[in-house]
Amino acid sequence: MLTLRERITSLARLGQIFRQAADEKPGKKDRALFDILSKAMIRAGEENPWFTEPFIRSALGALARMLNEGNLQEWTAPYHLPDEPGHPRNVGVIMAGNIPLVGFHDMLCVLISGHHLLGHLSPKDRILPEAVRDLLTAIHPGWGNRIHLTRERLKNMDAVIATGSNNTSRYFEYYFGKLPHIIRKNRNSVALLTGKETHEELGLLADDIFMYFGLGCRNVSLLYVPVGYDFAPLLNTVSEKYGNLALHEKFANNYRYHRAIFLMEQIPHTDAGFFLLREDPAPASPAAVLHYQTYSHPHEVEEYLYGIRNEIQCRAGNLPGWQAFGSTQQPGPWDYADGIDTLKFLQFAE
To answer: Which residue ranges form the domains of the chain, and what is each CATH number?
Structure first.
C-alpha cells in the first residue's frame, strides 16, 4: 500500500527529477533517474519532431513547479483523500499527444487519489509517459502495480477520462457513456491587449502564443486588440524571442502552406516572417497562424467570451479574473482542464 503521504512524497521526488532535467543539472545522488529521463527526452524527440529538446525541458520545468510538495499538500488537503480508497478503481486515461506530457495532470490526479491508472498512450507522446512510470517505480516500488500504460484498447475500466477533439468526443461518448467519465473536446485560449503592455509583458505573451509551437489548448491563438492597435512592438518582440521557429521544418511547412493559401485566395494578412497574423474572430487557428479581432471596450469582449466559455481554456490579460501574461503554460495542480474538478470526480468514481 502507498499511503497518501508516500504518494505525495514520491510525486514531489519525481518533480525534483523533472527540475534537474529541465535545468540540465543532475543531482549527485540522482544520476540513474536523471539518465532515464534524459534518454526518454532524446527518444521522444526522435519519434515526434514537434517535441524539441527546449520545449520538452519547458514542459518538465512547468510540471516540476506543479509537483512542489507544498503545492501538492495544499491542493489535496480540501479533498481529505484517504491513505487508500475503500474500493480502488481502474481509471482509464486516454491521453492526447499534441504537446509533451499533455496527459500528465490526469495521470497525477488518478495516482494521488489512490486509484489505479490504465493509460492509453498517444502515438505522438508514448516515450515520456513511460519514463514517468519507470521513474515513479524506481522512486517507490509500490507504484509498480498501480500504473498500466498501453497503446492497445483499454479494458476493464471503472471510470474514464478522455481527451480528444470535437470529433473524437462523439466516439468517446458512444463507447464510454455508461461509465463515470470526463470527456474533453477542443478548447483554445485568448489574450486581450490594450496597447499599454510593457516589452516584458509582450515577451511573456509570446510564450503563451508560441510555446510548444502553439499546439496546446493553453496556447493563445486569438488576440483581442483595440481599434487602431499598433502591432509593431508585439511583432518585434515575438520575432526576437521565437523567430528561430522558422528553422523548424514542420512549423515552417505550415507557415509556407498557409501563406500560399492566403495569397491565392487574397485573404488579408500580415506576414511576420515565420507566422501569419490574420483578422479572424475564430478562437482556433492553425499552426503558424495567429488570429486577432478588434474591440471598442473590454466589456464587449468579456460578454462575447462568456457566450463561448465552453470553447475557451485560458484568458490572458491585465483584467480582473484573467491570467497574467506568461502564465497560461504554467498551471498549478488545482488548474483543472475545462474547469472540471478531476479529483472531485475521482472521489465520485470511487
So the answer is: 4-185 (3.40.605.10), 188-316 (3.40.309.10)
Residues contacting 137, CB < 8 A, separation 6+: 143, 144, 147
Q: Alpha-carbon distance 35 to 55, whole Å?
A: 18
Instruction: Confirm if 193 and 229 have CB atoms less than 8 A apart.
Output: yes
Q: What is the pTM of this model?
A: 0.95
- One-letter amino acid identity for 338? D
Counting beta carbons within 10 angstroms of the beta carbon of residue 298, is it exposed (0 to 12), middle (13 to 18) or buried (19 or more)?
Answer: middle
Q: Are 198 and 293 in contact (CB under 8 A)?
A: no
- 206 close to 238: Cβ distance less than 8 angstroms: yes
Name residue 63's amino acid.
Answer: L
* 86 phi and psi angles, rounded to 5 deg: -60, -35
Percent of residues in the chain assigned helix, strand, coil, to nearest 5 = 50, 15, 35
Q: Dig out the grid coordinates for 163 from the structure.
A: 481527451
pLDDT tens digits for 53-92?
999 999 999 999 999 999 999 999 999 999 888 789 999 9
> In sequence order, what are the residues at sequence separation of 6 or more whose Cβ sits closer than 8 angstroms to the Cβ of residue 139?
10, 13, 14, 33
Q: Which three cell numbers stand for residue 72?
A: 501538492
pLDDT digits (tens, 9 = 90+) for 121-143: 999 999 999 999 999 999 999 99
The residues, any chain, with a CB within 8 Å of residue 97's CB and separated by 6 or more, are 48, 121, 122, 123, 124, 125, 126
Sign of CA dihedral 83, 86, 89, 93: negative
Count of residues for the chain?
350
Q: Enter the DSSP assignment of 225.
A: E
